[in-house]
UniProtKB/TrEMBL annotation:
SUPFAM superfamilies: Acyl-CoA dehydrogenase NM domain-like (SSF56645). Residues 16-121 form the Acyl-CoA dehydrogenase/oxidase N-terminal domain. GO terms for molecular function: acyl-CoA dehydrogenase activity; flavin adenine dinucleotide binding. Its cofactor is FAD. This is Acyl-CoA dehydrogenase. InterPro entries: Acyl-CoA_DH_CS, Acyl-CoA_Oxase/DH_mid-dom, Acyl-CoA_Oxase/DH_mid-dom_sf, AcylCo_DH/oxidase_C, AcylCoA_DH/ox_N, AcylCoA_DH/ox_N_sf, AcylCoA_DH/oxidase_NM_dom_sf, Mycobact_Acyl-CoA_DH. It holds the Pfam family Acyl-CoA_dh_N. Residues 233-376 form the Acyl-CoA dehydrogenase/oxidase C-terminal domain. The keyword Flavoprotein applies.
Amino acid sequence: MNNLSFPRPRQSEIAEGLRAEVREFVDGWHGNRHNAASFSGFDPEFSEALGKRGWIGMGFPTRYRGGGYGLMERLVVLEELLAVRAPIFAHAVAERQSGPLLLRFGTERQREEILPRIAAGTCYFCIGLSEPDSGSDLASVRTRATKVDGGWRVNGAKIWTSSAHRTHYMILLCRTAPASEVRQAGLSQFLVDMKTPGITCRPIVNIAGDHDFNEVHFQDVFLADDALIGVEGQGWQQVTSELTFERSGPDRFMSHMGAVEEFVAVLKTQPSAEGARTVGRLVAHLSTLRRMSRSIAAMITDEQDASLHAALVKDLGTCFEQEIPETLRLVLQTEPEPGASDAYSAALANVILHAPSCTIRGGTKEVLRGIVAKSLGLR
Ligand SMILES: Cc1cc2nc3c(=O)[nH]c(=O)nc-3n(C[C@H](O)[C@H](O)[C@H](O)COP(=O)(O)OP(=O)(O)OC[C@H]3O[C@@H](n4cnc5c(N)ncnc54)[C@H](O)[C@@H]3O)c2cc1C
């Protein structure tokens, strides 16, 4: 069996200094904090305000308007924003994975054109991976880009594409060569302007009644040669590195903390031993996950492969998030009610509706456990 260890995370004085600054900034911000699933709040005005403070694309080099910071500084800012349920979803995908992907595999022109806009909080991305018949098994994607004069012609459909109707670009994974014995071969990634003729978004309303997902259809969509990201046929390898960014951050275990915060506020007026034990257990789990996530940031900084560690954090973190509503319901007998004036009741309803999706988005827990087992040499 392979060895598995999480190196000690590094302390960063710069990061801790930033923590105080972010707290001051969010204290002065009067947005709605009662939507308990903070990660889903889409607010371009807030994203732009963060961009002006230099808190988006903090790890991008300064020549692309980034802060030139390390991952630890970015984690601190993210933790503070998630803790107050700030609406960061507009820019979150771009800054978490699309920007870093372009930085690593994009052309200089793509980087110069896009990264400064991401850092400014004005350019948003969606992820075009899942298809009606390909979710977990991404190697089976059927959306196809065919080589034509000066570019590529794309036909096919993506599904569950979060925010496709309100983002500027998609990173599209599609087939550029016929399927072969090596199923992961022949896939490529493209930078797609969502305004390109031939792209249609059809809304899918989720269980909470919100329009976040979409079906995205491509009908004879022309993409110029310079839309290719990285190397033709290397899409699988590129997307795997993108998922490491996606899977290990605090948004994978802190997005339901709003309900816990409201729960603690109620407990202050109705203290109980069971309540205290529950809060203690939740905080113990949270601090362990936080340490693991910070450890992965150190590994990525040192250019170590952290894909196994990231899969573990996502599995443990999203199961933790998913159990929060049930854990809280066993202590306080409150009726969950979406939009209720009682902050705890509204927050509880919100996390109950979002909990099922925690262990599906970004890779299901079964698939992640398969990755972990394989990486550890257990199958
Ligand atoms: C909130 C949310 C946001 C999302 N946003 C996006 C997005 O922006 N872009 C995007 O491309 N996709 C997005 N998705 C889609 C998501 O990535 C897929 O739903 C997910 O990968 C599962 O694929 P599927 O739905 O096709 O299920 P399937 O792959 O059909 O899986 C069905 C079940 O079978 C299990 N299963 C499948 N294969 C295996 C295996 N090898 N071993 C064990 N069990 C297995 C799965 O765990 C699952 O329980 C989002 C999903 C959610 C819930």
